[in-house]
Amino acid sequence: MTHRFKTRLEQAHGRGDYAALLNLIPYARLIGIECTRLGDELLFRLPANKDNIGNPILPALHGGVIAGFMELSAALHLLVFTGAPGIPKIIDFSLDYLRAGQFRDTYAKCQVWRQGRRVANVAITAWQSTAAEPIATARAHFKIEEPGRP
Amino acid sequence: MSENPLLERAKRFVSALRHCQVLGITAHQASEEGITLIMPYAPHLVGDPQSGVIHGGALTSLMDTACGMATLCVLPEFEVCPTLDLRVDYMHPATPHKPVYGFAQCYRVTTDVIFTRGFAYQDDPQQPIAHVVGTFMRMGKRLKGTQGLGSTIKGEQA
């Protein structure tokens, strides 16, 4: 499995197509996250999906799905840009909800503010209509596996 | 009916949330002290295929729901309370093939805001896998659609 995952990561890097890589992560398949490369940046997309609804009244996406989408985006962003040997492990995650997540496609972009030898700090912004009106902003710390360690 | 109306309300509430059904979350305990939800282990929750550990996002959904539902324990009548912010500190990864329990309580209720905290654990509540704090807005009872959901969780036919 480890070998397969590494091979998929290298292939995804080369082609700028991350679908096969995401397909190996069951939670990624569950919420339906997609990833595309725009120049040197990654754009994450969470297509509208009834299974992701939390508030049946509005209807609105479950806050936990938005959080999971942003957390997974940050981990994948690090995985792609740091060449870490495995999925980075989350240390903490802090999220501000700014607007209700409507039942429509959601996008996310990540910014690595600081990457040390052991820990990385990543900011994530999620939006639906326009990036200037985010529905949530988040910040996460991840433990980076040092290359060469199992 | 059960002798715990709060737990019955909690069960109906969680069953109205589609994503919680997808994650298999159910209400386990509820009292004025707080609420406990359970999320069983399932292969589709896995975030790291190399270890079989569930994704933090599933855990965050569990804890966001638990913190949000803790408001049911302190409010006399149902109010929609959107999450303002949430912070999760991961103590250690969840052990695969075991359910996760999510406990949450309200520690301060004001006219506009409710402060909640909680933790997720597996075998031992003394060894949490994650600590959580969350802040929720009170939107009052008159928000559009609130009464429909309020009736559903009371067990009335909406």
- Biggest pleated sheet of chain B: 6 strands, antiparallel
CATH superfamily of chain A: Hotdog Thioesterase
Structural class of chain B: alpha+beta
The major pleated sheet of chain A works out as: 6 strands, antiparallel
**Assembly classification:** heterodimer
Q: CATH homologous superfamily of chain B - what is it?
A: Hotdog Thioesterase
Our measurement of the CA-to-CA distance between the termini of chain B, rounded to an integer number of angstroms, reads: 19 Å
CATH class of chain B, please? Alpha Beta
InterPro entries (chain A): HotDog_dom_sf (IPR029069), Thioestr_dom (IPR006683)
Organism (chain A): Pseudomonas extremorientalis
Pfam family, one (chain A): 4HBT
Protein name (chain A): Thioesterase
Report on this structure.
Chain A has 150 residues and is an alpha+beta fold. Chain A has helices at 2-15, 19-22, 26-31, 63-82, and strands at residues 34-38, 41-46, 53-55, 60-61, 89-97, 106-115, 119-127, 134-143. Chain A has a 6-stranded antiparallel beta sheet with strand order 1-2-6-7-8-5, covered by helices on one side. Chain A has a two-stranded antiparallel ribbon with strand order 3-4. In chain A, strand 1 (34-38) and strand 2 form a beta hairpin. The mean pLDDT of chain A is 89. Helices cover 28% and strands 33% of the residues of chain B. In chain B, the strands form 2 sheets. In chain B, strands 1-2-6-7-8-5 form a 6-stranded antiparallel beta sheet. In chain B, helix 1 (5-15) packs across helix 4. The two termini of chain B are 19 Å apart. Strand 5 (89-97) of chain A pairs antiparallel with strand 5 of chain B.
Topology at a glance:
The complex is a heterodimer of chains A (150) and B (158).
Chain A lengths: L1 H14 L3 H4 L3 H6 L2 E5 L2 E6 L6 E3 L4 E2 L1 H20 L6 E9 L8 E10 L3 E9 L6 E10 L7
Antiparallel strand pairs in A: 1-2, 2-6, 3-4, 5-8, 6-7, 7-8
Chain B lengths: L4 H11 L2 H6 L2 E6 L2 E6 L6 E3 L4 E2 L1 H19 L8 E8 L9 E10 L3 E9 L8 E8 L8 H9 L4
Antiparallel strand pairs in B: 1-2, 2-6, 3-4, 5-8, 6-7, 7-8
